[in-house]
């Protein structure tokens, strides 16, 4: 069975770079959620650009708040 979501995954290294402020890694994170954010941004049959941009900012904020350092036991 072919994985239809294979282009929608992100590596831990990319996520870690995004958390640490890498611009291109953050763009990759945004690309991952872009279809979902675009769908959420449709109100009354019209695309709401302001809502979309707020969602992008929210994804960025959540991404930089991820704690990637952990202790292995």
Automatic annotation (TrEMBL):
Residues 12-57 form the Helix-turn-helix conjugative transposon-like domain. InterPro entries: HTH_dom_conjug_TS-like (IPR024760). Pfam families: HTH_16 (PF12645). This is Helix-turn-helix domain-containing protein. It comes from Schaedlerella arabinosiphila. The lineage of its organism: Bacteria, Bacillati, Bacillota, Clostridia, Lachnospirales.
């Amino acid at each position: 069975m072919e994985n239809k979501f294979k282009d929608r995954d992100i590596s831990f290294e990319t996520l870690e770079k995004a958390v640490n402020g890498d611009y291109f890694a953050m763009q990759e994170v945004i690309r991952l959620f872009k279809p979902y954010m675009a769908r959420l941004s449709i109100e009354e049959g019209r695309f709401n650009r302001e809502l979309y941009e707020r969602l992008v900012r929210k994804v960025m904020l959540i991404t930089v708040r991820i704690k990637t350092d952990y202790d292995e036991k």
